Amino acid sequence: MTSEQPFDRDHRGTPVGRRLVLGMVGLGALGVAAARPLQDGLESFLGAAADRDPTGLTGLLPNGGGFRYYSVAASVPTKDATDYRLTVDGLVDHPGSYSLSDLRGLPQTRLVKDVQCVTGWRVPGTPFEGVRLSRLLDAAGVRPSARAVRFTCFDGAYSESLTLPQARRDDVLVALRMQDKPVSHAHGGPVRLYVAPMYFYKSAKWLSGITVTDRVEPGYWEHYGYDVDGWVGRSNGRDDAPTV
């Protein structure tokens, strides 16, 4: 799942308790009036609350950085340097697995672009930093029959896909940093996908698997009517300004 998607209203999960709702509202109001030092704490709280909030109520509250939190799974496990692994497999000659340390040791690329959600909100000038996806694909040795790449996530629910040419773009990252700090759990950390020219639902959070395939497999939100090719301003019936 990603934090930036509208809530799947057909999803059923554990009801949100009255104390949690009141706590979120109180801290949301605090976030409006408080200074910058409180932003990270508020963001962390809302991210944790979103993990337990299948209603999407947390998306109505203000939070640090202009992002909104939504969830398509009732909860998401936390991963760190001790247990995180990213697998690369499928139609490749050299399947492999990367630890967080492995990914940090590879050349890093930094991009600063607007983030555009298909629901309409936008966060300008957002820095992302990580390993170009094309570098991991080259290291794996993509086979001639390959046509696409499928991404899976350790929330156990979300998936996404790109065509192979899309995946090889220079502005598609396996991101380790966001807003000049490590990607937080709430934002899909420790590692997430970042597809700069597409709507943010394409930038899968909690990335755990990269599988090279012979065809595009529609991702989570595509099964609910979103475009498979989610170009900002050229898809989903929207005319937003491009993010590139």
From TrEMBL:
Protein name: Oxidoreductase molybdopterin-binding domain-containing protein
Taxonomic source organism: Streptomyces sulfonofaciens
Limits of the Oxidoreductase molybdopterin-binding domain: 75-221
Gene3D superfamilies: Oxidoreductase, molybdopterin-binding domain
Pfam families linked: Oxidored_molyb (PF00174)
